[in-house]
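Protein folds are increasingly written down as discrete tokens. With that in mind, we are printing a sequence and the tokens encoding its fold.
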Amino acid sequence: MRPTIVVLIAAVLFVGCNTPSAETRAKEQLEKMKESIPDVEAAALGQKVTAEQVKRAQEALTKSSEYLGEANGKLDAVTVNSIEAFQHAHGLKGDGILNEKTEALLQDELAKK
């Protein structure tokens, strides 16, 4: 009887040692969640737009006080963040993509004054 109890206790301890801790499981879940979230900024930075489109957008964003950098036609993180802020302010999805609606609103901004 005693050897059976010892074997059972040893088996329980062995199984208990091999299961991941709550902290390990939480870290694994966090990593899975991070992987499932799309990288919006990377998508915006990778969009196919011309330097002229970006420069016009930067000029309009400057006029609307959303962009403080130089209008140089380079699509960088500051420009993308400014586009996102402009989109949010105008009721659009803030994804940083220069789509038709965003460009039209930016052109309206340039036409003011």
